[in-house]
Design goal:
- The structure holds two protein chains of two kinds.
- Chain A contains 19 helices and four strands.
- In chain B, strand 7, helix 6 and strand 8 form a beta-alpha-beta unit.
- Helices cover about 35% and strands about 25% of the residues of chain B.
- By secondary structure, chain B is α/β, with parallel strands linked by helices.
- Classes of the chains: A mainly alpha, B alpha/beta.
Chain lengths: ~425, ~250
Amino acid sequence: MTNAELKTDPAKPAQRMRAGTLITGWMPWVIAAIVLILLPVVFQERSAITIMNQMAITVIFALAYNMLLGQGGMLSFGHAVYAGVGGFACMHIMNATEFFGSFPLPVLPIFGGLVGMGLAMIVGSFSTRNAGTVFAMISLGVGELIAACSIIIVAFFGGEEGISGDRTYAQPFFGVEFLQQIEVYYLIAAWLLISALLMYLWTRTPMGRMANAVRDNPERAEFLGYSARWVRFYSFVASGFFAGISGALFAINYEILTEENLNATSSGLILLVTFLGGVGFFFGPIIGAVVFTLVQTVLSLETDLWALYAGALFVATVMYFPGGLAGLLMMHVPAIRLGKGSLLVMPYIKTLIPAGIGILGVCGLVEMLFHLRHGSGDEMTLFWTTFDSHSVVPWLVFAAIAVVGIGIARRTAPDLKDAWNEANTPPKGAL
Amino acid sequence: MVAAALELDGLKKSFGKAEIIRGVDLSIAKGERHAIIGPNGAGKSTLFNLITGRFPQTSGHVRLHGEDLAGLAPFEINRKGLSRSFQITNIFPKMSVFENVRCSLLWSMGYKYNFWSMVGRSRELNEGADAILEQINLTGRRDLPAGVLSYAEQRALEIGITIAGGADVIMLDEPTAGMSHSETDYIVDLIRKVTEDRTLVVVEHDMGVVFGLADRISVLVYGEIIATGTPPDVRANPKVQEAYLGAALEAEH
């Protein structure tokens, strides 16, 4: 607890909170809106816009997923189906030319949301009876079931090729026909902002609060007059709605949906993204989606082994920072509040830079091994250098980099730990 | 005649062949502070769980203000005005102390499964929650996660959560278990304060607490109530002395 909180006037808590929401409440959203508007001005390449679209869609999906995992305590292994089915439904609407031509494209995600929500209502009616393992297993089963249907019910899911459509058949929206990638970007960005805001506001409602209560202690919640099952059900349905919106945006962006949008891999991926970002904070999944999409797109251009590194990052996060990247960031808040954040800068530089170089050395060894086994020819290019992966010298160089880098990091780690403790110690007499 | 706040009628519970509650009849008047005592394994907690719908009874009836509670889920019983605490501290550990109390106010303030109003905006809700924090002396702990409070504070919070919803029948399961003397005094004062004008049913081991707090006492031994009466009556009852009190009082002195 900080001193500021102790000194506030407890006689007027309601007023204090209201003022707090007005000032600090809206600022992040205004900043987010400005950033979303400016991003394509800064990153103008087509590929960058493609990446940002994918990122925004993943952010919405991850936030929707975290309504279950982080806020409701429900671990789902099949959440891709709500996004996927919402997307497939939108694809069919796109192909129903007459109906599709009667409204502008930005309205389409609402249909995706409603379909995702409808499916969540059906599945949730029996799956939310319990949280924990039972819920997880039902979600896995239903997910597999629907993914399997994609090959069986060809009329809806289009079999192995999936189904495709054309977003430009919609009624022009103030003259915009969404032919350009950039126009689609702004459509997605607008929906991202709306969805994220709605999902955030949801956490401030009685339902959102009780979702936390049921997550923490379902039995106690029952003795407060709330049925844990209904609380879970409503969270699940709301999550299905926003997942459906992300599916619809996927349909708009890629104009094709396949079995891949439904299967367990996609469901697992969103769990990974959400956990990587951190389930404990609202903005955690946003960080997770941004980082993961970057790894998936940018890193995959550099190396075939990107999935290995993503996996290693995930395992390291789960093991050392169960709060995810958001938790890692928020760990620093107490030190910054104490005004001692600057104490950490030098020790971080001394530890993290050698550690980073050492890890790159390890990555170099891994890449060389991969090239040795699977590459064609002797020549390989790594870190802008071309060399022969069959000769001994580069192996020694990378091994030396790895050993020295990690060795230095291990040396300086105790100093970092001391600095950390110092930065988190309140000045004497303040408590 | 006015219906009793809580009435048990031939209540029985068996787990397999083991009969744990063997026919309990009990009537607790409105506004009464009633304590249930008994040796370990007498079935006190089971009785609590039967009344609050945590387990279904094998036979018999539980009536709250004359209304039969058979087949109702805990949340439905709670909505009818019965609230309970637990023997093992049962709070929402990851939520703030304030949030714990605010959540326990939501249903009684009519929010139900509302997802369109902001809890931060309701003055009634926030001031109500702060008033309860004041009552249970946890205002200074308002924004801490409930899980980091001391044991006695968590118990106080649990009582706060239990009374917050405005239920008129409050059931507390060993509220002073595992507490030091000063903590016990603190909790007993708190209980006395917050249950004013309400019906209180309390299971308790500490005889000092029971005799200080209760208007009437029931002694439960092996799933049956062997005596009910005012503290002096119960103390004088030879059956009680034989079965339980003598041993307990001896142990205390």
